[in-house]
Amino acid sequence: MDTDDATRERFIxxxxxxxxxxxFERLLLAGYRGASPDxxxxxxxxxxxxxxxxxxxxxxxxxxxxxxxLPLAEGWQMLRTLLGRDFANAHLHTxxxxxxxxxxxxxxxxxxxxxxxxxxxAAPLTAAxxxxxxxxxxxxxxxLARLGVTDAQQRLVPAMARKxxxxxxxxxxxxxxxxxxxxxAATRIEVLDFGAGKGYLTFALHDHLRxxxxxxxQVTGVELRPELVxxxxxxxxxxxxxGLRFEQGDVGSYAPRAVDVMIALHACDTATDxxxxxxxxxxxxxxxxxxxxxxxxxxxxxxxHPLRPILxxxxxxxxxxxMLTDGLRALLLDACGYDTQVFEFVSLEHTAKNKMxxxxxxxxxxxxxxxxxxxxxxxxxxxxxxxxxxxxxxxxARI
Length: 399
Ligand SMILES: C[S@@+](CC[C@H](N)C(=O)[O-])C[C@H]1O[C@@H](n2cnc3c(N)ncnc32)[C@H](O)[C@@H]1O
Hints:
By secondary structure, this protein is of the alpha/beta class. It has helices at residues 3-20, 72-82, 125-128, 142-146, 161-179, 200-212, 226-239, 271-281, 308-311, 314-335, 369-382, 388-395; strands spanning 26-32, 39-49, 52-61, 65-71, 87-93, 97-103, 109-115, 188-194, 216-223, 244-248, 261-268, 286-292, 338-344, 355-361. The protein folds into two domains: 3-115; 132-395, Rossmann fold (3-Layer(aba) Sandwich). 36% of the residues lie in helices and 26% in strands. The longest helix has 22 residues, at 314-335. Bound molecules: S-adenosylmethionine.
């Protein structure tokens, strides 16, 4: 199978997973380039006919629509035939994401994923009646009570509402990235979570991968504070969980090892750079971090003309340091063979630390030189002498 076929199969696997999990809203095929002069597009819906799940294909022509219902296996086969040959674009809509498969003029396939803002408002009718039905995690999972997210009756503890929202948003984001990555069909997935803290997100991801997706996930939380490590391992032992362990360690001196998914949520300052570096070194297919306290660049920033009157305000300088740090990290990740997105993963009302860097490894590396030239230009403009991730990558000759 060539890389374009593998990309198409990842897209179809994501569609199949969305149907299985009840997240499939619709699939649109656009960019028609076949022989029928009046054909516009095809919309695909997941339906149930006489108790059997089916795919309903509605083909829109200039003056009429045609509908064809097919059992799932035949439907996926139909999609396989249409993609790339007749249609240059396909958009999968789920409540949380839009996944796009696009073919270039030369027939090269690529995947792009976007997190939908206000995703819950767009949830399917069945889910709109009970918002928790749209969540990837349910309140009855036992680890939630041990961590104090739910009470003994498995009800959400009101004080944990924000955390609950954050956990779910994180899972939605990771789930979307998994479906768009080479890990879409992997059975065994090795995860490292740096700065795991009390383990809310570590437990949640482990539960989602093992319990909801049935993958053989091996998840390790790495945390500086020994009391948090002991607390989390205690819960793992009480619940007899397989494939989850917490280790006391410092991301700055952690021994490199192979990893599929590297996460670092709210790891302080340059701990995020060390975690990203660890993910790149370990060959991670997905690197996901929500950076926190951007201290390193701020004292280095010149206030170049004509920004000087703007950046003399400390608050602006802080915002600039954050934007530049994360922007440089994204460029460096791209230079190391990833497609990186920077976005707000949960609204500001839930946490101020809401920015996420999500990097998914590309099937083919790209030319790093233009990206590294952009890094140099930005650094020169602002007078930045050192950025931690860049130094780490230079030290082991990755850039
Ligand atoms: C703000 S908490 C985030 C916890 C968790 N990731 C979350 O988002 O809920 C940051 C955690 O990172 C840990 N930490 C800070 N620097 C670290 C380092 N160099 N190595 C490992 N853990 C670190 C802290 O002890 C703290 O528990």
